[in-house]
Amino acid sequence: MLGLNLPVVIVLAAVGGVLAWRRANTLTWLLYTWVALWAFFKYGFAVPIPQSVATIYLGITGLALVCFASSSRERLSETAQPIVRLILEPRYRLALAGLLVALPALAAYNVYADLNVPLEAPGFGREVHPPPPTEMTVHDETVDMATAENPYLHYNHDDPELYGEHLENGRRIYYENCFWCHGDGMGGDGMFAHGLNPVPSNFNDVGTLPILQSSFVHWRIAKGAPGLPGAGTPWDSMMPAWEKFLTTEEMWDVNLFIYDFNGYEPRALGQH
Amino acid sequence: MTRNRILFGIGVLAFVSVIVTVRLGGFLVDNEYRQPDRQVAAQEELGEAELVPRQQGIADEQAADEAEARARPYEEAEYRTVPFVGSRVTVWVLAQLHLLFAAFVLAVPLFAFIIEFVGYVKKEERYNKLAYEFTKLLSVSFSMTATFGAFLTFALIILYPKFTNYLMHIFSPTFLPYVLLFFLEALFLYSYYYGWGKFGPRMHLFLGFMLNIVGTAIMFIANAWLTFMMSPGKRDDIDGDGVPDFVSAVSESGALLSLRDAFFNFTWMPINIHRIIANVAFGGSIAAAYAAFRYLQAKSDEERAHFDWMGYVGNFVAIIAFLPLPFAGYYLAAEIYAFSQTLGIQMMGGTFSWLFVLQAALIGNLFLGANYYLWLGMGRMEGGVHFQKFIKWLLIAIALCFAVWATPRYAISSVSEIAAMGGSSHPQLSYLGQMSAKNTAVNILILSTYMSFLLYRRTGRQSIHPHRQLLTRAQAIVFSSAAALVIFYGVYGYFVDSATRIRFAIPQVYSVLAALVVITVIDLPLYRNAAQSGETKWGRIPAVSQYALIFIALSFTWLMGLMGYVRSGLRQEWHVYGVILDTSPDAYTPSLGFATQVVSVTVLIFFGLIGVVFWLSSLSGKKDYAPGAAAEDGGRLEGGQAA
Amino acid sequence: MKLSVPMPLRLVLLVLGTTAFYMYLGQIVPQKESHPPPPVLINAEMTTEDLVTVGAELASGKGQCLVGCHTVGQSGPLRYPDLDGIGGRAATQVDGLSDLEYLAQSLYEPAVFIVPGFADGMQAINQPPINLSDDEIKAVIAWLQSLGGTPNVTLDTDLGY
After folding, report:
1. With A139 labelled, which of A74, A196, A217, B217 sits at a CA distance of 20 to 30 A?
2. Binned average pLDDT, 10 residues per bin, chain B of 643 residues
3. Do C36 and B587 touch (CB under 8 A)?
4. Residue B484 lies in a domain
């Protein structure tokens, strides 16, 4: 829901609930706020937010919490009191010792965690949808990219039974050839996807299928990575040129199927 | 003792600097032009015959040098360079320092005059004293402004002779009035300052008023020079389609067509407005920093109370000016867009887009600092705990808006993060990076800050107005409906196309402005002669608040430096946008990292100098020098010198 | 024992710390120096294909088409029309204008036809500050045609401006 990682959010809220129930002191609340937000930014989103943004947010949170704690004399002494007690009172000596060990250990762990990341190539900007050619030749047949449409799409209205057959054929082809990379649910997360960079296209995405003409998709299927234009490099796409393995009909069928499966319609000619 | 030491130190420093200046002059002269004659004259005594081959060689070389020097025709230099620093950075730092001092000198009379006027109307002596206290800062700052102005002019003539000459070509008729106004400024400033208490109150107020008029006129003239560089022309609807078109004030080759158009150019008025407001905000914050400095130095409770109050007033001035500043900035940006789409896009989406994330951090800090100071100030009142519970919610609102405003449109992300997001923008966060969200955030920030101020105003006071409940409720309704309207437009902006979305900023701004005005109008009678539950104890505030004031002043100064960079850097490789191209090696636009380094150095220099201004101003409050008290220190000092 | 830092030192630390913090923020954001565009040379022997290459350079350099305004192949909330496939669309955008005429009009007189859903905002690119020469504009047109179309403009083409 909302792209959130619900269990994490529920756990964080539950901890907050317990704190409210136990009437936790100000210091505990401040610590909880910061740690909870840290955990929320790190684990709370289905798609993790970039580290840089999380750092900005946590910095602002930290600043705000410091301001809050020191915004009046009373609140400052109220916040500082547990710390003073922890340091001065003999009965907390063990806890203090634990803290003195834990803080450097936490810092050390943080350094370890920061360094222990896989080496990565630096990011680069790249065109998501490269410009297609005006026309292309598939199996000795010239396809005009501007006007070509899926020849079986109109069966949707004219002949639902035939449409179903083509769809069924498309399904078979998809699950024989495509799902390895593009995934069972077409989320671009098939079993080989984690090894690929750039990752396979996610057909669930609202920014992919609905904004493309079916001729574009046909072009990508037929020509694959080798057919990509030079202007869009660097391309490390692993998409095969499927015209070498499938017939034209099979390619249009699978085209039909991926649109149908995701409930999208191809963008019509001239539509913005 | 320390005083003598300082004086001694200044003496030594002056002596050393005179020597350094003389040596530096000599060094520069030697390097600029070696006199060939001197050596030749020495050799004539020796006689031609006695020259050994080495001497002969040296003599020939010198003769050749001299011949070359004589043969070289005079050439007009286009650019000169400064070693290590570079011409651009030299002019940049000097201009920024000049501007910071000038802003201060223009702003302080503005609110000193208003405070004096308030004192005159209310017949309260303390306002008069406070205004005088602010004015004390002026005279040293005025000399600083003039010094840096002269320094900047020389730097421009030396380093950018051709371009400076071009500006002279355009603006030569404006320089004489400028100088005359500067004379008048000095006249009014010194008569205003030294004449404090010497004239009748009306006469003195008149002097203050004239000082402000003259100061503003000076700034308007200088603004014409720099806005011309960005937008050399006026707006006029030539083709009659209702949309103002650009009419250039100069020909394609740069020759002047109309001085009037060059002067009253496209961005002139927006810059004037933006600068007046920003100057007051900046001046208020620097004056508050001065008060904070004196508070921290203070030895007695009485002094502390006085400087706490002064800091509060300075900060109040800064915040009141700061609230409309984003709107003035928006107006300026919109005018820049209207003048040239390229400049506008360059600013918000292109090369400078990351600068605005930095700006968000700075403005966020300013809002947070200002609110923080107000909250701390609630401790001055007896029985001020009542509103403490709201602080949490205000803080949450401010932190949220701050976070939204600092969210970049395209986050810096690693390859694996991009892979996880499926693109360079995050599915949920990308909504926060857009203009709709940011406009909403800044409007809510302004409302929250105003709310903090209202709570501060109410702390320890009880309204005695007969309809207080009704009026308070009316305020709450106005406040929440403004907030709701702002948020509504913010959210609705996602469901319309870009052309409509841009226009939503205007109702947002108006609803906030209207809310501020309406709430203020209700608040004034509501709390007139309000019953106080306890006395306001000026000076009873944690010391950290004073550091917060200095932090606010620092952030303001840094922000001005940064925005100065974008205003000037926006032209990119143009001296005069679209007309005169910069062909010097410094024509490129530096990276943001480099720019922030220059800004930081400028800010440090400014604070070093303003520290001197503070110190000099604080001298006037010190006890007079008495020979008896300092005799032994003096004796020791002389003994030291003799040894 | 009470640890305390003298006030002047605190002030100095505050000033240095704050300035250093803002400077640090300036260092962690992406750094980019933008240099004045190098002169792009167009000579009379250039073929249409050469013009496409030059036009692509102009688009992201001196012409500033892709510097914050237009995109190629992006979706979502756009500032100005995406140029993806413009070469194919150009002929059908405005009735009565061929693709060449349409593209030339969009560059010389951008306010005449505004793509529905977008605001007027483009400047004539043959005028300062962008100030492309007629030959450079032909190169840009060749590049635009290459986006989803077949470029056919040459330096001899008369654009009518």
Report:
1. A196
2. 78 92 82 54 55 82 91 86 90 96 93 91 88 89 93 94 92 93 94 89 92 95 93 76 73 85 90 94 94 91 91 91 87 82 70 84 92 88 72 91 85 70 70 82 91 85 82 91 92 74 81 91 83 78 92 95 92 85 87 94 95 86 65 41 37
3. yes
4. no
- Is B463 inside any structural domain? no
Q: CA-CA distance, B412 to B410, in Å (whole number)?
A: 7
Domain containing B174: what range?
87-381+536-619
ipTM: 0.82
What is the count of structural domains for chain B?
1
**SS (HEC) of chain A:** CCCECHHHHHHHHHHHHHHHHCCCCHHHHHHHHHHHHHHHHHHCECCCCCHHHHHHHHHHHHHHHHHHHCCCHHHHHHHHHHHHHHHHCHHHHHHHHHHHHHHHHHHHHHHHHHHCCCCCCCCCCCCCCCCCCCEEEECCEEEECCCCCCCCCCHHHHCHHHHHHHHHHHHHHHHHHHHHHHCCCCCCCCCCHHHCCCCCCCCCCCCCHHHCCHHHHHHHHHHCHHHCCHHHCCCCCCCCCHHHCCCHHHHHHHHHHHHHHHCCCCCCCCCC
Contact state of B415 with A120 under an 8 Å Cβ cutoff:
yes
The CATH code for residues A135-262 is 1.10.760
Which residues in chain A are classed under CATH 1.10.760?
Answer: 135-262
The residue type found at C113 is F
Distance, in Å, from the CA atom of B591 to the CA atom of B565, rounded to the nearest integer, reads 11
Alpha helices per DSSP H over chain C: 7-28, 48-60, 86-93, 99-108, 134-146
Best C14, C24, C29 residue to mutate vs chain B (most B CBs within 10 Å): C29
| A45 φ/ψ angles, rounded to the nearest 5 degrees | -100, 145
Inter-chain CB proximity B554 and C14 less than 8 Å: yes
Residue B311 CA: distances (Å) to CA of B145, B289, B366, B545 = 24, 7, 16, 10
Please indicate, yes or no, whether the overall pTM of this predicted structure exceeds 0.80: no
Cβ pair C58, C136 in contact under 8 A: yes
Contact by Cβ (8 Å): C47, C154 = yes
CA nearest A128 in B: which residue? B423
